[in-house]
Amino acid sequence: MASRSTGGRKARHAKRAAPPPVNPAPPGVTGGQYKPLTEKEVRAVYDTACRLLEQLGIGDVPARLADLYAARGVPLQNGRIKIPKSLVEEAIAAAPSQFPLHGRDPNRTIEVGGSAVHFGTGGAAVQVLDSDTRAYRPSTLADLYDFTRLQDQLNNVSWFTRCCIATDMVGEYALDINTAFALLKGTTKPVATAFTLAEHVAPIVAMMDMAEGAEGAFVKRPWIKAHISPMISPMRYGEDAVAVTFECVRHNIPVSCITAAQSGATAPATLAGILAQSLAETLAALVMVHLMRPGYPMVFSNWPFVIDLRTGAFSSGGGEMAVLNAASAQIINWLGLVSGVSAGMTDAKALDAQYGAEKGFTAMAAALGGGNLIYESSGMTAALLGASLEGFVLDDEMHSHIYRTLRGIEVTDETLGFEAICDAVLGEGHFLGHAHTMASMERDYFYPKIADRDDPRTWGDAGGADAWERAHGRVKEMLSVDADYLSAAAESRIRDAFEIFLPKSNSV
Fold first, then answer.
1. Residue 103 in contact with residue 109, Cβ under 8 Å?
2. CA distances (Å), 370 to each of 52, 68, 363, 366, 412, in order?
3. Is the peptide bond before 234 cis (omega within 30 degrees of 0)?
4. What is the pLDDT along the chain (508 residues), one digit of tens a residue?
5. Rounded to 5, what percent of the chain is helix, strand, coil?
């Protein structure tokens, strides 16, 4: 590993967390300009979802949750809970429309909800596109740690969810514990993870307290969000995930309740039909959380997924995915909830033209649709089966372009430039070097570091590197930077209490 720079731990952390001096394309800009549904169509989807909940209901209700429903006068009927619209709307009204996702570093906390758009990560890839061989292989704990510390330096990843599974971990407990440790070690951004079983929540909370240096510190200001899929399409609760939700609420961990119905398989093939069913399922998750604790922070993550009806394979990068997730964001924002959608995925296996096209139009649609949190947006390949370090770098630059698009055009007397136009026409005949141009140069324009804008001869003379090669060089630079977000004392406490498989040689 490269030697550490001078300035001390706090100085290095502050430098890494600081935004660029001038950022013409900041995260958190306003979305919602694209509305694929009319107001009447939004209402029709919502009303159908409520009818499904009230007349068909939800099956496989765990006993503990059924007791909460019964206490509200909603008993099981033939094995299903039929949720009245009044209870759905009570849950919607109580749910927060905005809340913070805390970073372990308070300066990296983000406020989610409203009209703000943030790109982040997600996924559970079981393979990585190896940086050296450019071939797929099973993902490991070391890979997860590399992804964690790489994204820590990317300004457009607002929060980090583990993007790959450490397939070299044996057993669910070892997987969950070591995943949490890699996130803890590699970043101070808001993070998210999954808990395979409810009994894994308390030990991981204890680990976070060890990092904080005080028992009970984490629950006072939790900086982990739980990714939970409590609904099994079509229209059933999942017992293990419901149990995890109970435990997360008990430990004050914000939740992202994810519905991922698939068109033509676990939901209708029509786009309107999958929107209605998946909305009903995510509303059932919201009611569940409301019954556990009214007003609890939940990201309403309605991710309608698409399959290729010719083969049954998941198709993550088509126009249908783009419009469905934009519509989902529109509906969730109409409800006044914190919206989570998925975009920026691709079916491509290589970082090629298909990769760029599918990521570009799906991510742009979700952002213009107003998704507060856009998951899966960085580095995911092969219909979520793979992840790429170079993809993270390329996608981070794509997100800057999208944020710049969302920012729009500021029209003022100064930006209209009447006097500057007169000066140029009556003076030197151009705007180069004019004070009006210089003032606009960094304020209004984003300049990519990976995309090439040289002329062909200059590009060729410099070696003719393609986008992957340039991103690969950047990955190598970034991974040479130490991640040292755990003090030696805190790391020692954690390693004494848990079996941690990340080698100490990979730790500072």
1. yes
2. 26, 33, 11, 6, 25
3. yes
4. 333 344 555 555 455 445 456 789 999 999 999 999 999 999 999 999 999 999 999 999 999 999 999 999 999 999 999 999 999 999 999 999 999 999 999 999 999 999 999 999 998 999 999 999 999 999 999 999 999 999 999 999 999 999 999 999 999 999 999 999 999 999 999 999 999 999 999 999 999 999 999 999 999 999 999 999 999 999 999 999 999 999 999 999 999 999 999 999 999 999 999 999 999 999 999 999 999 999 999 999 999 999 999 999 999 999 999 999 999 999 999 999 999 999 999 999 999 999 999 999 999 999 999 999 999 999 999 999 999 999 999 999 999 999 999 999 999 999 999 999 999 999 999 999 999 999 999 899 999 999 999 999 999 999 999 999 999 999 999 999 877 799 999 999 999 999 999 998 544 3
5. 45, 15, 40
Q: Which two tokens stand for residue 131?
A: 């940086």
Q: Which of 278, 294, 175 is nearest to 235 (CA)?
A: 278
* C-alpha R_g of the chain: 24
Residues 6+ apart with CB under 8 A from 365: 34, 322, 323, 325, 326, 343
Burial letters for 188-218: b for 16+ Cβ neighbours within 10 Å, e otherwise? Answer: bbbbbbbbeebebbeebbebbbbbbeeeeeb
| CA 375 vs CA 287, 379, 487: distances in Å | 23, 11, 30
Query: Which amino acid is residue 58, in one-letter code?
Result: I
Q: Domain ranges for the chain, please list them.
A: 417-444
SS3 of 351, please? coil
Query: 395, 137 in Cβ contact below 8 A?
Result: no
265-270, long-range: CB within 8 Å, 24+ apart, which pairs? 265/307, 265/312, 266/233, 266/234, 267/233, 267/234, 267/304, 269/309
* Cβ atoms of 248 and 292 closer than 8 Å: no
Kindly report the CA angle at 53 between 314 and 251, in degrees rounded to 5? Answer: 75
**What count of Cα atoms within 13 Å lies in the side-chain half-sphere of residue 264?**
13
To 10 degrees, what angle do helices 389-407 and 353-368 make? Answer: 40
Alpha-carbon distance of 376 to 5, in angstroms, equals: 33
DSSP state string for 177-244:
HHHHHHHHHH--S-EEE--SSGGGHHHHHHHHHHHHTSTTHHHHS--EEEEE--EETTTEE-HHHHHH
| In the block, residue with structure tokens 């139009």 | 361
Q: Partners of 58 in the beta sheet?
A: 81
Query: DSSP letters of 79-133?
Result: TEE---HHHHHHHHHHS-SEEEE--SSGGG-EEEETTB-EE-----BSEEE-TTT
Q: How far apart are CA 360 and CA 426, in angstroms?
A: 42
Contact 160, 479 (CB under 8 A): no
Contact in structure between 87 and 54 (CB atoms under 8 Å): no
